[in-house]
Amino acid sequence: MDATTRRTAPAPAPAPWRREPARATGRALAVFAAVRGGGALVIALGAWWAGRDPVKVLGGSWDSFWYLSIAAHGYGRTQMWPASDSIQSDAAFFPLFPVLTHLFGGGPVAALAVAWTAAGAAAAGVYRIGERLLGPRAGVLLVALWASLPHAVVLTLAYTEPLLCALAAWALYALLRERWLWAAALAVLAGLTRPTGIAVAAAVSAVALRELLRGGRAPAVWAAGLLAPAGWTAYVVAVGVRRHEPLGYFTVQRQWGSRFDFGAGTVAAVGRILTGGNVTVPVAVTVAGLAVAVLCAVLLPLDRAPLPLLVYTGVLLVITVGGAGFFESKPRFLLPAFPLLLPAAAAMARARPRTAVAVTAGLAGLSYGYGAYLLLIAKVPL
Questions:
Q1: Rounded Cα distance, 262 and 324, in Å
Q2: Where do the DSSP E strands lie in the chain?
Q3: 173 CB neighbour count, 10 Å cutoff
Q4: pTM: predicted TM-score of the whole model, two decimal places
Q5: N or C: which end of the chain has fewer CB atoms below 10 A?
Q6: In the chain, where are the structural domains located?
């Protein structure tokens, strides 16, 4: 072959086994974008109709205000409520999301850019886990179900849940493929994102411990198990040092009204509903969502889900159900627990395609309506 032939010869086509995963992931991302894009459009139109700025509604509601303040000015803001003796410090909010927002330029648009990018990465990770465990069709349906949850509106807000979901999904995927150092690195970042990021570290450390008990002695396994909680621990220690109180972070949480009461608050809320008390729509939805989550948690081990997913979802569920505080926010805290939807995705994958589409469309419609209600009408913390 002469030089001219070498210059004009076409490049070899990518191997089919490389093209197909990318195409399948692209289909999952398209489904996610369609579902959540529709939800964002409903919020934007509702905000415009109500005379409010859609960008401020999506990028500056509730906790987003605190993240934007940290991104712009750093830590140090405290808000006091004399009527209830409540003291709210921004030290309750972990730093990774506001740091990324600051790097993107700050403000609601930057925060939304970070959140939406993370949501896309999360959808890709959720699909790859579903595809690995149940097949491509179930993987896409897993993404569709996750994007259609009642509180999935949070995936289009300037909140930390999209970022935690992305880091958790890819950390769990790395564990399933025994990529120990990748899993540990992502767990460290998850621990710097939200308090519940400790669930990712718990999954990494638990799987590393199992590997060691089986006789594995690879340095990467030891490193993963030991390093995974480093992000969460570092921030908790930093708050304690700043407040000159070893357990200062937990004091901050108690001042916000958040503490671990072993589920007493959850049981009391369920009791109010069962006894016919004055119950709001968000409380009723929260109780129903927790009931479904517990049922799915029972089904997950029956379907022989891998250990990383069981530990991760189990820790999230214990923290959410056992914690007291903002009761109506519990479904949001469980939004990263996407493995709970695996049994439902498997069942939908066995149904007819039109049935799966109809179910997804119906759930998405309900999610749109409830998301608009939470952001534009309800007066409860999201």
A1: 8
A2: 78-81, 86-89, 259-260, 323-324
A3: 22
A4: 0.91
A5: N
A6: 24-376
SS3 assignment, position 13: coil
Where does residue 196 rank: exposed (0-12), middle (13-18), buried (19+ CB within 10 A)?
Answer: buried
Distance, CA of 39 to CA of 332 (rounded, Å): 16
By the 8 A CB rule, do 145 and 54 touch? no
* Segments in the chain below pLDDT 50: 1-18
27 vs 123: CA distance, rounded Å = 11
Confidence at residue 10, expressed as pLDDT on a 0 to 100 scale: 46
Question: Dihedral sign, CA of 209, 215, 216, 217?
Answer: positive
If we measure between CA atoms, which residue out of 362, 195, 377 comes closest to residue 282? 377
Q: For residue 175, what is the enclosing H or E element?
A: helix 161-176
Q: Which two tokens stand for residue 39?
A: 């939800």
Q: SS3 for 261?
A: coil
Query: How many residues make up the chain in this entry?
Result: 382
**Cα within 13 Å of Cα(243), Cβ side:** 20
Q: Could you give the dihedral angle defined by the CA atoms of residues 256, 258, 259 and 262, in that order, rounded to the nearest 10 degrees?
A: 160
Burial of 76 (0-12, 13-18, 19+ CB in 10 A): exposed
State whether residue 89 is helix, strand or coil: strand
CA angle 190-223-315, nearest 5°? 40
Asked whether 359 and 189 are in contact (CB, 8 A), the reply is: no
Exposure of 92 by Cβ count < 10 A (0-12 exposed, 13-18 middle, 19+ buried)? middle
275 φ/ψ angles, rounded to the nearest 5 degrees: -95, 10
The HSE-up count of residue 349 (CA atoms within 13 Å, CB side) is 19
Q: Which two tokens mark 285?
A: 């939805």
